[in-house]
Write a structure and sequence with these properties.
This protein is mainly α. Helices cover about 50% and strands about 10% of the residues.
Length: about 325
């Protein structure tokens, strides 16, 4: 039996009646659909429930009645919003070259492993391939790897793992980096979106934007070097020249491959690529630049200052009482 069946129909009707004005307030506040069920239930508790006979509102989120209330609220929202209430799993979007073709890859940022079914689960924050993961499942519209010869298949999976590992490492190391000011936060927030759009530009099935892919991949490294400068110097150079940006923080960061940095386009050339000017760039050349940028971005992100490490950390989480 649904828990909402234990609530008198008249009470259910009253709760549902309140949802229209509450949802209007959430719309005005810009709350996104997946976040509205819990938010609406909390507003109802705070503003509509005056007292509960034989119960209390203290620590309401642990009370059985709040779980039943959430069930009623969710029922109303499912009718109104349907599948838009479902929040997709967070993934890092990359691109991998296999047999000369480029394939988009979606790499999970976290993993869930049930401990006690329905009660507890492990939440894992990976920076590399974890036990039980199949990297071929990260590929979007993948080739039939089962028909590849063993060496070719392993090379393809190694490439997927390399790209996935770089992206996961960047994600973690930005998340745990110290952020000294609002501009530094903006730089940090830009890195993964730049890498995502670079991958999507390269894998567009009809109109790949090769120059923009190069620019976006280059920007990811640029943002990280500028972030490092703001961490250590409080400012950064206003340039697209990666070598110059690195010179600013040479004495403060470790582990950045200067030789790899030296083969990235200079400021003039990367602006030409963005504009579609100068010598043409092939998709394969752009992928090689993207791959170098990923490697460098991972190095730069790892070199950032931080007060916290959570690489491959696992947390045992109890299921929320209202879920």
């Amino acid at each position: 039996m649904d828990e909402t069946d234990t609530i008198p129909p008249a009470t259910v009707a009253e709760i549902r009646e309140w949802m229209t004005p509450i949802d209007a307030a959430l719309t005005e506040a810009g709350v996104q659909a997946p976040d509205r069920v819990r938010a609406a239930a909390e507003i109802f508790v705070g503003h509509c429930i005056l007292e509960i006979e034989g119960e209390t509102k203290e620590k309401y989120y642990l009370r059985p009645w709040f779980r039943r209330l959430c069930g009623v609220v969710r029922g109303w929202y499912v009718e109104q919003y349907g599948a838009s209430l479902n929040r997709p799993n967070e993934v890092l979007v990359g691109v991998c070259e296999i047999r000369g073709s480029l394939f988009e890859a979606h790499i999970p940022t976290s993993l869930g492993r049930p401990e006690e079914p329905g009660k507890t689960a492990w939440f894992v924050m990976p920076v590399d391939l974890q036990d039980g993961e199949d990297p071929s499942e990260w590929l979007v519209n993948p080739p039939n790897l089962t028909k590849f010869e063993s060496q070719a298949k392993q090379e393809a999976l190694d490439e997927v793992c390399a790209v996935g590992g770089w992206l996961r490492s960047i994600h973690h190391d930005i998340m745990t980096a110290t952020i000294p000011d609002d501009e530094a936060q903006g730089l940090a927030d830009n890195v993964l979106p730049y890498l995502q759009t670079a991958a999507q530009h390269l894998t567009h099935p009809y109109k790949p934007a090769i120059g923009l892919a190069c620019w976006d991949a280059h920007q990811a490294v640029e943002q990280l070097l500028k972030l490092a400068a703001r961490q250590h110097l409080g400012t950064h150079a206003w340039t697209h020249d990666l070598t110059r940006l690195f010179e600013q923080v040479r004495n403060q960061v470790n582990g950045v491959d200067e030789a790899l940095l030296g083969v990235m386009p200079d400021a003039k050339r990367i602006v030409q690529m963005r504009a579609g000017e100068g010598r043409p760039v092939s998709r394969q050349d752009a992928y090689r630049l993207y791959r170098r940028a990923l490697d460098l971005a991972a190095q730069c992100a790892r070199a950032l200052s931080r007060n916290l490490e959570m690489r491959n950390s696992s947390f045992l989480i109890r299921k929320a009482p209202w879920a």
